[in-house]
Amino acid sequence: MNSVPVPLPANRRDTRRRFEQWVKHPGCGANLVSAVHNVKMGAVARRENPAAPKEGQSVFALARGRRFEAGLVANGGEKLLRAMAVRQMFAGPDPRFLDFRISINGGPLTDIDDAIDHTEDFLRTLAAEGSFAKGSFAKGSFEGVVSSATLRIPKGVMLPEATLIIDALSVRLDGGRPVVSVGEIKTYADRGGHTSKSDLAHARAQMGLYVHALAMVLEQLGLADLVELSLEGFLVLTNPGSNNPTVRVGEDLRYQAERARKGFELMEAAARDMSDMVGDDEGEGPKSLFDMVLAAPTSFADACLSFCERAPSCYAKAIADGDGAALGDDIDRFLNGLSLHRADELMGGARPRNDIERDFLRRMRNPLDGAS
Amino acid sequence: MSSVVTALRSFVVGSGAIAVVKAPPGSGKTYTLVEALAAGIKGRRRIVIAAQTNNQVDEICERIAQRYPTQNVVRFSSAGYQPPDDIDERVVFIDKKAAIPDGPIIMVATVSKLALSKFDGDFDILFVDEAWQMAWADFLPVRHVADRYVFIGDPGQIPPTVAIDVDRWESSEHPPHQATPTLILENPALTGLRTELRLPTCRRLPYDSVRLVNGFYDFEFDSDAKPGERFIRPTKRARADGPAATGIDAALEAMWAMGRPSTTAIIQMPTPAVGLPVGTDVELARFTAAMVARLLERRCEVSTESGEKETPRSLRPTDIGVVSTHNLMNTAIQNELRELSPKYASIRVTTPERWQGLEKPVMVAVHPLSGVMAPSAFDLETGRLCVMASRHQSACFFVTRDHVGATLDDHLPLADQALGCHDAVGKGHALHRAFLEYHRERNLIV
Amino acid sequence: MTNELRTIRRLRAWHEGRPIPRGEKVNVHVGDDDEILCLSFVRMGGESLPWAVAVGHPHEEPRVFGVPDPRDRDMVADMMVEIGRIVLEHFGHPTFASDVDEAMSVYEFRQIWVPGISHLELLHSVAFAYARTTWQRADVEVLRALGNLANCLFVDAQRPGQQTVVVASSALTTAFDFPSSPVRQAHLGHLLAWMGREKTRDSRLRAATEAEKSSVATTLDPEFERTAVQPLVERWNAPPREQRAAKGKRVAREIAEVLGEQLRHRHSLTVKTIEKLRKDPRGANAGLSDLVRIGVDKFSRLWWDQVLRELSDDPEVRAYWPGLRGDNGARQAAFSYQQRVAASRQVMHSLVHGDRDLQEEELMRGHGVRAKVVAVEGGGARWTLMHDFPAVPDVKVGGSLTIAGAPKLQLKVLSVSVEERTMIVIPSWSAAKYSSGPMAKRASDPTWRGRQLILIEDFPVFFTESMSYRINATTESGFDILDYFRREISSDIDLDVDPDEGADE
Predict the structure, then answer these.
(1) Global pTM?
(2) Which of A127, B29, C395, C458 could staple B23 via S-S, CB 3.0–4.6 A?
(3) CATH numbers and ranges of domains, chain C
């Protein structure tokens, strides 16, 4: 049934990762160049310093993620549908499952264009008369979930286009009208209020991107009035200590969708004058691309530690330059333009030369000493 | 009499379990509460009213005593409480539960006092005033006071203070730190048990300010004031001396540029190229104080009600209130005002928390995001902005560094709330942007 | 404001080139060796249960347990049974006492120390896995008991002021201000390197940066995991499952060695932290003994009492274990919340009087006022104070303030004049409350005049605690919110009454 797998072209890969990479530190020029041109920072870091530690996630964690997702969609999505039904995500008793994964991901579809065609065909069929070619259902009859619905974003800085794969897209009928919700599958555990806030923020940012992209695609297909796009998403997490899924519904995405829209705008504005070269599938590419990233100005911040492989070298540079951010973003602000070197001198008794330095010494006094 | 009062009176003598009254700022919350008591008095009910502070309790006692001249009001207070000297003589103070009279009664107390006493359905109905300031965990200790409850308050204001880590309850169906009425209104299990009422009209704010403030609420309300009825207007020409004077002059001009006066404006101060001052923005404090002085220097007149439209009155220092979110900023402004003139020492300068429930003809507010380059969840919480923008009867001036619009535009807020919770940070960000956009569209940012 | 204070201190630490003491005293309780059990975990990426565990008292070599592949839940459970017996014995669980004659009859203070936050979170995962398990296997009661204890430890770890569960990195940052960003301060190795014997700032910084390269979290460095451990795990898994134990002894040993080295590093950092704090010349805040005493009471109620209930012969008696994801019942959530609010107030109440730096922090937080006594009148019945910080104090008329350093001396606020910067207060004592020292004076003593005092908001711990017990003293189940509202309301009034006629006007 499947033809030879065709990898996603490099310039359409990893849209989500690259966008989120940029959002984590928009103020860093190198980060912008890296995200727009799909040059992974890990590769840049190793060019800069061959001894730099290798990037990456745990191999075991990646394998577990794949196993978990595969388990959810196995046997016609049995596990996933059951977990969703527990949360009453469907109005009817017989939700269906459609698998739009491509063959290299273990799915039935040939390649990414096939997945995009299927997704668009599916969305049209949800809204219009006629049956869905591959899944045979009629308008107003489908309830269920689609694995790996794939969208082509009609515009964006990652030209010529960007592609997004939605982990799970649910459809619920509300008075015969289809309501679609986006979902994200994560392997971390649902620990109630103790679930990692940064992990959740990341997942919601991704879902916000899906909502934004889906709205654009529905608009482009002329379906915006026919298919309702929910601003609430759902998360598929694991039950702690097991591989069983647990579904959380009602995830508020109203503002995250707007964040994605705004983020793309800002990224586009920041990248307006950049070339349209992109790195290859591995985030590697011609030397000129690396040179562009290496030549771009860097700006060290606390956030760098959490995502950028060049953080150690930028940190060392920040220390050498006396950049207050090396001691934390708050110190950077507190120094108000002074370098750590100069602050050191002032704390050591040097005479202040200007108002900023006098102000610094005033603020360094115990605030209680200044009270009168 | 409003339909809400009628409905509440029916509720008082009916058998419903919970009534929640959403009251926009200056919409007659206490009036409604006091009027609703009529049914209880006639029906010989035992009614208790809980408020958050002793001042609020004393004020409610006064209002009840004035409204129902033959009715005694029992004030249940702590033993050492010193009542105000001028409190109505029909307010009977007691401090022991055993002293609470049998039979029909209107009793008023703080939530804390009720929580410390042991009740078991001693009253027919419990009214909670300023109910959005009462966390669910603070309601449960007083729930046995009565069988039935009326919660009345302003849902747009500052939520209950949470000083501890609440991860453990964030995903709970009953977050103990959540405002009691919010929890009740959002809990589907209580749908059939609750009556939701909304006070429809804001009486305090000018017409256009109501449109602005309504954005902070999830329901529509009207303005009692007619368009153009409230305003601030300078009567004296004076040469502007310094940026604050220029700013106020430009704001007053912008407010009168559209034919019908606007009653809010934002006055910006440049953000220094070298960066914002760290800590208290003393320059902005000086600017704010100078703006207040300029309003008085130009002998502004204000209309605070329909009767003053044709005969506005002169603005006095005590007609002006100043609000900022930080105590140190307030201190700095106060010091600057004192420096300018001893007359200005009477101008109240304090935090939004302390302005809740109060009003002034003219407010000057330091925008809560001024000087904040990376807004946090606390910064983006809209309760404070809502309180700041809803204290005035005639006009409100926001003062801020000019980076706020760009800061908000560039800020991409993360949604790191607990599972299943609302994205309050995203909502705050959107409302803050809408607030600026409202003024930008009307050329009210100078 | 307190954040600004910490920013300033961090810059001072940078200038000095070393961590600087935070507080006049050490505000972390370090138990005796026998009271402390150090726990360190390593888990496989993506897994939530331990791969290997180090456990031991500070003065001894840790015992290290591990499995070749933690995705085998049977093997993990076998390991956790062994760990469980040790931890449960440490906490005095009656079933697991090695010496029945010396078994505790009441709960006695115990501590566990973990290197970092991720190790504490792993306890939560252990709780999820075992506290409610219905697994049919040998020693499942050990797993359940361990799961419940782990959950109680995780819950108690969030109670302000608790001293039962100590995260070593947090203990150090409570006691010192470090010259590095808060993000880096989560790494225990980084912190201890700053405290090492290097002579200069640069050399300490280099040591701290180097130390960061070794993970001390529960997960291994991904590259290390990929290169040093993955091949071994693959070798272990190569034979069919039933043959692995027999054929994989050698590779299992190799995995244990690799993981053991990782764990011993984490364990040694925890022990170093304990030693550093013990040797600190500042000494411990005297108020910590209060917190330990309160902690024993609270943890006893949370865990020990439930253990006894579970062991009771009476079938009517059952244990009430805290929820795993949180307190979902409306009543329990509100009760726990008020208990925590009370605890947060108790912390300050207990510690602030013994540490002048903490008093300053409280002032900066707006929880107090610094003032000079300008008049002592009415035979000490009334004092007039003039405050200099803050300019607009957040003090309630009718509220109460305590003189910092003298918890027995309270002042009730009669009036405040912001304009004059004065306040009138009523001392709560007349005869001297202390036998010696600068506070051993009658309220009427004229030498109070001219004294500058720090006055701390009097934390109503008792009131908040009362609120929590009032929530619990109830006949409703409190689990379902409807319990609070669905009572039958008797309606004996004439509904036709026109409410408008109700007013006596």
Answers:
(1) 0.91
(2) B29
(3) 2-279 (no CATH), 368-457 (2.40.10.170)
